[in-house]
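Trying the structure run again after the queue cleared.
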Amino acid sequence: MTSQVSSPAGKSDEASEAVVGEQRAPHVVGAGAAEKEIRRLDRVIIRFAGDSGDGMQLTGDRFTSETASFGNDLSTLPNFPAEIRAPAGTLPGVSSFQLHFADHDILTPGDAPNVLVAMNPAALKANIADVPRGADIIVNTDEFTKRPMAKVGYAESPLEDGSLEAYNVHPVPLTTLTIEALKEFGLSRKEAERSKNMFALGLLSWMYNRPTEGTESFLRSKFAKKPDIAEANVAAFRAGWNFGETTEDFAVSYEVAPASQAFPTGTYRNISGNLALSYGLIAAGRQADLPVYLGSYPITPASDILHELSKHKNFGVRTFQAEDEIAGIGAALGAAFGGSLGVTTTSGPGVALKSETIGLAVSLELPLLIIDIQRGGPSTGLPTKTEQADLLQAMYGRNGEAPVPIVAPRTPADCFDAALDAARIALTYRTPVFLLSDGYLANGSEPWRIPETDSLPDLRTRFATGPNHELADGTEVFWPYKRDPETLARPWAVPGTPGLEHRIGGIEKQDGTGNISYDPANHDFMVRTRQAKIAGIRVPDLEVDDPAGATTLVLGWGSTYGPITAAVRRLRAAGEVIAQAHLRHLNPFPRNLGEVLRRYDKVVVPEMNLGQLALLLRAEYLVDAQSFNQVNGMPFKAEQLATALKEAIGA
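Done. Tokens:
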């Protein structure tokens, strides 16, 4: 991975460069300004927070993109209101973006920010409890007036009443400075104020020596149809950089070197979970040599997949934005019947509506991917917050015996591989497959090593082309439910293939012929056969990280991987002995899971629900799995998990 740091264009010809290690840190020296000290850090956690209209997600995204191009390892946590435009200046309207970046391998967005950028009183009040003593707080003083403070219950200014003495507070009139910097553009005050997030981004980019060309190019591209607005944003961005360089309040800037030892050699890019899933679905279609058909209804936090896939018609992807959830999955299942890789995307409430059609897909035994980006529930619940509470719905949320394989990615980048794995299972075994991601993975991001196409699995499958069964009188016929003896998959016959006409529908099929059957014995046989097919799916054995012969195992699934692994690292660094394992396949479980569980005296299962995996483990393996649960809409913190696991070890 290569990286380069550069200063914004258009600066003084007197600019000098300071060399730190192998990285060159740019500086602008104004009249009478002294060169500032640069300190090297191994990691930093920054949180941008402001009103939902302040552009905090864009600011965090741009800082993340430049950090990725610089070569740091990183992990992000966007956090925003469910309302499209929550009331300005209120606590429910606060939007934040946390970024953890480092010169080494990291796993989480971090427990607590080293730097909080608070654009208004609401942002400060909503986030101050997470900020540790001694951290830096950059506040937009222009917003700390009587009315905005009264909205969130500040009787006096927290900048003046001594309540922030434990922190390094940097008061910056962001709005005033932005308006002053944009005078020449002839913008109204309201228009100029909108660029204050770019001023803040420029300041933080200076503080941490982030590259800048990418952001300037992005702004010019984003506002290509409004070049004056583009240049105004670039000017605000540069003004923020120059303010950091010239003000006396920021005497030090910081350097976090690239994580050159954390990654294998290769080409990397920053990627979110939803984007990785989209790319995984495209790759699955190419590797299967099948068109991809997405039938979907927009729902937070899954809509980004629909948006992204709609851009890739050139890869044989078709997207259909349906009028509702039921129509979306119906179209996807119809596409699967027609020979496409059918996909539907949704979140928990949509899964409930899709359940009857999922049962139909089980009965028809057709390949279909159901992508569930889990969010807080029940009902509408917390649309923009994360949760892991759809596991039992995916496992059992249909009438009758309707088993469905379940795959769960563990990191944003792992969503790419999980999509390929889910497609492999669907195509090989002719079954609908659940992929359980969540809001934390969907919106979070991390570096992703772009794979070589030669390394991707071959997912090609054969369609039925002719008769496959001989009757007693020697007549050759096509039986749509005659099964592959190894996988128990039925043949996939594309409509219109001569001689392969067959019935479909939700009523029970006769074994082999596929004719309608009400025979009790046949129904019993078909139910058991469908279950045996799912139980026989080949998945890798569970790998256990146990370097010291532990007696306690922490077992997770899905997005808890990062916090669990970070917590385990902390405990081992403190001399504790603990083992760790993480499940990708939740139905069927890995064949060695029972043996692994019996190896340990204690099994602790952290989940962002009330113990759904633990319930399944207790039922299947009769082990005393101990749950550690959280359902507050936020991911676990590593310190929180480390404390709980240490208590479990010593209990």
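Confidence is low (pLDDT under 50) at residues 1-33. Worth checking whether this holds up in the mutant runs.
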